[in-house]
Amino acid sequence: MGERTDPRPSLGPGIPVPVVYVYAPSDDPADLSLTPDNAGAARLAVDHLVGSGRSRIAHITGDPGYAAAQDRAAGTRAALAAAGLELVGDVMFSDWSEHWGRDAAALLLDRHPDVDAILCGSDQIARGVLDTARDMGRAVPDDIAVMGFDNWEVLTTNARPQLTSIDANLQQLGRTAAQRVFAALDGVDVGHGTHYLPTRLVIRGSTIARR
After folding, report:
1. For residue 141, cis peptide bond before it (omega within 30 degrees of 0)
2. pLDDT in tens, 167-205
3. What is the secondary structure of 39-69 as a DSSP string?
4. Parallel/antiparallel/unpaired status of strands 20-22 and 200-202
5. Fewer CB within a 10 Å sphere, N or C end of the chain?
6. What is the pLDDT of residues 77-128, one digit of tens each?
């Protein structure tokens, strides 16, 4: 297991037991790796925002050195293009922090006051965005929708309003990895390459569709 979705060096073929790489995929396509579909997650998020009546969507995210940040940004752009829309401004990269969310939202809303949705690369960033939106007199979700990533419930359920977020389905990821290991121990060919597992959308009060 790894802490980031960035590819990492393979442990090599000489290990005498089955190996499944979880979350952080191996850089060897001969290995079996399971990781969340971050690009697909961003498409899921954008589809929800567009379906909620939003068309001026921006993206504030974290460290550009993280594969997750790049994959989510690419998925966001692709989903907007498929909907016939363009991202408001550029993708805003920096820290995975509430402080960055507050600062980035202030800059974004000053430059693009007509933005009606902000997709954030983490729940921490989204909490900061909520603070700035409140400080600048923007009602969430009536004036602007805010979404996060990770579904970290200590943040999402204690936010006001509660925060819509993408859940990486980590329990299912771990369960699937264990099932593949047990199958391999039984002699089953469990395959190879990197498999991107689906995420899920958890809808809360920060993006409720406007009537």
Report:
1. yes
2. 999 999 999 999 999 999 999 999 999 999 999 999 999
3. HHHHHHHHHHHHHTT--SEEEE-S-TTSHHH
4. unpaired
5. C
6. 999 999 999 999 999 999 999 999 999 999 999 999 999 999 999 999 999 9
CB 99 within 8 A of CB 129: no
Cα–Cα dist 59/42, whole Å: 10
Q: Is 92 helix (H, G, I), strand (E, B) or coil?
A: strand
Residue labelled with tokens 């995975």: 96
Instruction: Report the alpha-carbon distance of residue 86 to residue 144 in Å, rounded.
Output: 17
Domain 38-167+201-207 fold: Rossmann fold (3.40.50)
How many whole angstroms separate alpha carbon 73 and alpha carbon 20? 27
Sheet order of strands, 32-36 included: 20-22, 32-36, 193-197
Tokens linked to 127: 């909490």
Strands (E) located in the chain = 20-22, 32-36, 57-60, 117-120, 145-149, 164-167, 193-197, 200-202
Which secondary-structure segment (H or E) carries 103? Answer: helix 98-111
